[in-house]
Structures are given as structure tokens and as C-alpha cells.
Write the C-alpha cells for this entry.
Amino acid sequence: MILVTTMGTGSMDMYSHRIAENLDVPVFSTDIYQKSVRTRNISWLSPRAVKAIWQDWRFVRALNKLGDIAHLPNHHFGRYGSFLKMPYIITVHDLIRYFDLKEFGTFIHRPNLRDRFYLNLDYRGIKKATRVIAVSQATKNDLMHYLNIPRERISVVYEGVDRRLFRPISHRIYEEPYILFVGSEHPRKNFTGLVKAFSQLKGESRFKDLKLVKVGRAGGQEADFRGQTMEVVDAPGLVGEVIFTEFVSGAELPAYYSGAEVFVFPSLYEGFGFPPLEAMACGCPVVTSNASSLPEVVGEAGIMVDPYDTDSLAQAMRQVLTDAKLREEMIRKGFDQVNKFSWEETARQTQEVYNEVGGT
């Protein structure tokens, strides 16, 4: 068995790094995924598109020379799986771009002709895999429903949280009280829905000093995600009340979580959802949506609301901000919930999948 790891700082890159740290298997490291991300939404006629074909061909050749079962660390490696001669395992983190491909809605961005070709290869490769690892039961359900993959070929292995890094700390980033959001501004993240709910709170005098802090870059090159966000943020009464920090390193994130009054994550769809887990590990109460995998991750520790219901979202935040007893209970339950997720356990269950596949 050989584990393919990717060079990068995103959540799917972190997944490959963490299980590599906790598994005793050979590792094949590549930057092909980062290169593919940088070519999204470009034309087939672009010189970059021609170069990408050459890079992809070289990568497939390198994988085929490994001579062993490969574990591909995310679903976008399905495009290579279609051309592999040996069995392989693939981890599927979500089907977000599948939904965009099939026009079930706009979760990130509608793919152009070139992206549609590669996404179709991704999902064909997932179907061909000897075994699929899904990072949540919600993702497994999606794989069975949308890709018609048999239940017995899918193993649910939850991701983990690094408790050495994500823990309560006393250092404060801001003096003012603030609500925290961590993530991109892709439509599926529903950050504009949070801004609208925040606007309701700002209409109350008791929240006059409250800020909304948004951590993370706007998104990729597919669209002007920041421009779409600012159409809502620039509304009267919100100018200067929403703070954008752009990229924050993993080492800095615990301070943001620890200092927040409440972490709010009203996402419409998540394959797993790291930020609520990280927030709970830092002792921050969580308000999130009741959609996709988030109930699995948050359990009974957070308040879950319909992400399309702005009034309910505002009311949930209001509850946490004004009820000290509720906050204490949520923090305690959050610590208990986080204990259910560790990278060591992720690695142990992944090894079980390896053993099953290797024995077939």
C-alpha cells in the first residue's frame, strides 16, 4: 500500500499529511493537485491547459510505476484513477463540485467546458475504485445516491482534530467582542446569510460593540467571491463592523477561536466540516446549520438551525451571546464531542481499510 500525499495548506492536503504521520506506510508526495487547482476555469486553448495535460500524463506514469495499491487522498484524483493499472482506494471528502456540474445549484461555481471534462473523469474514477473512503455518513449517502456506488464498497472514516494545536488559549486578537466565521466566501458557505443575521443583531443597542470577524481567503479564481460578499457587507450600518483577515495560519487560528463569543458556521453543504470541531476544541460555543454532515460533527454540543432561515440564525446567536449558563453548557459539551475525533483513530480505521483491500 502506498499513500499519496499532496503539497498544500488546504483541508484536503491536511488530511493526507495527518494520516501519513500516523500510518506506517510508504508515501508518494506530489504537487499535482495544487497545479490542477490553479488551472480551474481556464480555456482548453490556453497554453496552461496543454501543459496540464503533459503534467497529468507524467503523474499517471509515475503512479503506475509504483507497483502497489495506491491510496488517493481526495476525490479529484479520480481523474487519474481511470488510467491506473492497479487497484486503488480513494477518499471522497464531498460531492460539492458534482452538484455544480449537474446544476443542482451553485455551491461554488458552474464549471466551464474544460472543468466539466475533468470533473466527469473524477467521478468516473471514484466509481472504478476498489474501495471508497467517505469522511462522513452524509458523504457516503451522497455517493450511494448520486454515483450509485454499492454500500459495501464505501467505508466511513471520520477525520480528526489536532488537540495539540487546537486548545483554549488566553491571548486575545481583538479587544471588542466578536462573532467568528472561518472559511471561504463560496456560495455554499452562506457567509452572506451570516452577515444578514449579524445585521439584525447590530440593530440592538446591547450589541453595538459586537463585530463579525471573517477568517480565510475569499475563494479561488472561478468568480469574484469577495465582490459578491461586499454587495451585502456594504449595506448601511455594516461598514466597519465586519473584519476580513484573509489567510490565517494554523498556528494563529486557536487565538481567533478562543477569543470569540461564538463561532457561527451556517454552511449549506459540508462533506465533513473542520472549523466547528476546531472551535469546540478551543472552548468556543458553536452555532451551525442542520445540513449535510454538520450534525454528525457537532452532535448535541452546538445549536443547529436551518441555514436558509436568517431569523433563526440571528436568534441562535442572540441566545449564546446573552445566556452565560447556556454558553458554559455548550463549551462543556463541545469538549466532550471533540474527544470523539482524533487523527490517531482516523489512521487506525484507515489501516483497517488497507488490510481489507490488501487481503482481497
Notes: The first helix runs from residue 11 to 22. The domain at 2-160+342-358 is CATH 3.40.50.2000 (Rossmann fold). The chain has a mean pLDDT of 95.
